[in-house]
Amino acid sequence: MRYSESFIYTLKEDQKEAAIVSHNLLLRGGFILKLASGIYNYLPLGLRVIRKVSDIVREEMNKAGAQEILMAAIQPAELWKESGRWNDYGKELLRIKDRGDRDFVFGPTHEEVVTDIVRRFVKSYKQMPLNLYQIQTKFRDELRPRFGLMRGREFIMKDAYSFDKDEAGMDVSYEKMNIAYHNIFRRCGLAFRSVEADTGSIGGKDSEEFMVLSQTGEDEIVICDSCEYASNVERATSIVEDEPAQEIELKEVATPGKQTIKDVCEFLGSDPKFSAKALVYKNEKDEVFCFFVEGDDELNLIKAMRATGSVELEMVSDDELKKLGLEKGYIGPVNFPNKDVKVLCDERIKHRNNLVVGANEPNYHLMGAKFGRDFECDTADLRVVKEGELCPRCKKGTLKKIRGIEVGHIFKLGQKYSKAMNATFLDENGRSVPYYMGCYGIGIGRTAQAAIEQNHDEYGIIWPISIAPFEIEIVSLDTRNKELVEFCDILYEQMKKEGFDVLYDDRDERAGIKLNDMDLIGIPIRVIVGKKAFEKGEVEVSLRRDRQKQSVEKDEVLEKVK
Ligand code: ATP
Ligand code: MG
Ligand code: MG
Ligand code: MG
């Protein structure tokens, strides 16, 4: 591609809306352009990267025996009602109506649709194993879209779905995907780890996430320093024996419902974040406990925390809860000796340890409560592990916390969807059995951007060659010199003929601008043709990674880059 004819427009200034480097570089390099919050246009450079990542994904999926299809992006509500997710999915699900007032969703994922497709054709155990995948645009109305393609609302995902006749088959299909995922992320040039993961709202049993290791990642991972154990903290379990929750006596120090968060914050010397009503209690040791409550009596405890000076006041009002799509929360009886109390707990609270939980009145509280043990809920085995804890697997090493970007996720779904949707086949004995399913996702844009997060310097992006928009960039620094231009033109044609993806900066621009753009865009191999060297019969070849220039005889360039 000739730069002069291309639609590549770089920006000089850092972009204020970008909180992380990779987002800034994608915007500055002219890879993407924001259309609305969490919604981006892919410009030529960006689309090239998306294609490169998709091609790798496609190759590995095909190699693993999966077949590509393309499902509809808009899905009828009926399927979501069948699976139960019409009610369960929450606000991330974009619901739309057609002119006939019929409900549809813009697909955030495709378990329902693929199950519907398969149940129409696959009636016998002989038709499995089967794995169908697609690379397609999804929409999730994320609460906080941010970081560019990392957490968009509209984004491109590869999603695959396996169907098997039994659990053993499902395990094999899952393992095949596991291997394919390792190949994919290795080929994308990423430093990553697969970690044990929480199965979240999709449900199911085993699940692993593929994490690109990066400080800017939104996920926290624990890894063992002596064995292979690695787990998302959302999921990690600890082997440290727990003290049972203690009943504690609390005295009201303010009238329930009368304290506002602001009052409490002032009392504790913190900044209020949301507005809600709070109950404030003290125990015998004069420690203060705040419970933030509002409205509904039954759901009286929204977020409990031990407020001892350094507390972060991170609480939610009913409105905020609703925005989080948590209006249901997790409600269950707490094991109070003599009172039946209900507790509401949100997605984030469940990952905390040592909660104080209780009723909307004094003297019915437990300290050191644990999710799963003292709360009855369906994700009972969750608790947070601390750094330095003993590894639950080898029981020798200690755990360390690092951060990661979730680029891929594989799940064993079991019969969750097939049962709900009555999607069955006849087994060897003529019995009707729901399929055993697995689902496997990769964020294409997130993967591309994670690569930048791991590969950049102060000048710009350093693309791994496998997913770079171009492999080689030729920069001619003197567009008035006929001989030099002619040399570059020929070299460009030769390189294309050799099958390289070449960007040829033939623009009539100052050298400084061209060299800066070259560093910013991050093409891995560069051939710089400057006047002085050219007159000596040489050009400069360098790698973006180290920017070390090497003089090469001009007739040997092609051989050199091969
Ligand atoms: P997250 O925990 O980051 O919200 P998720 O667990 O909800 O992701 P999955 O349902 O597992 O996502 O989807 C499969 C893959 O799709 C993820 O591993 C990720 O790479 C990608 N993905 C999910 N949400 C987004 C998003 N908002 N923007 C870009 N990619 C996304
Ligand atoms: Mg999500
Ligand atoms: Mg996740
Ligand atoms: Mg996930």
Topology of helices and strands:
Layout: H1 21-28, E1 32-36, E2 39-42, H2 44-63, E3 67-68, E4 74-76, H3 77-83, H4 85-88, E5 94-97, E6 103-106, H5 111-121, E7 130-139, E8 154-164, H6 167-187, E9 192-196, E10 207-213, E11 219-224, E12 230-232, E13 246-248, E14 251-252, E15 259-260, H7 261-268, E16 277-282, E17 288-293, E18 303-307, H8 318-323, E19 330-333, E20 342-345, E21 355-358, E22 365-369, E23 399-414, H9 416-420, E24 424-426, E25 432-434, E26 436-443, H10 444-454, E27 456-457, E28 460-461, E29 472-476, H11 482-497, E30 502-505, H12 511-521, E31 525-529, H13 531-535, E32 538-543, E33 550-553, H14 557-561
Bound molecules: adenosine-5'-triphosphate and magnesium ion (3 copies).
Adenosine-5'-triphosphate is lined by residues 109, 140, 142, 151-152, 155, 157, 406-409, 441-443, 445-446.
Keywords: Aminoacyl-tRNA synthetase, ATP-binding, Cytoplasm, Ligase, Nucleotide-binding, Protein biosynthesis
InterPro entries: aa-tRNA-synt_IIb, aa-tRNA-synth_II, aa-tRNA-synth_II/BPL/LPL, Anticodon-bd, Anticodon-bd_dom_sf, Pro-tRNA-ligase_IIa, Pro-tRNA-synth_IIa_bac-type, Pro-tRNA-Synthase_IIa_type1
Organism: Hippea maritima (strain ATCC 700847 / DSM 10411 / MH2)
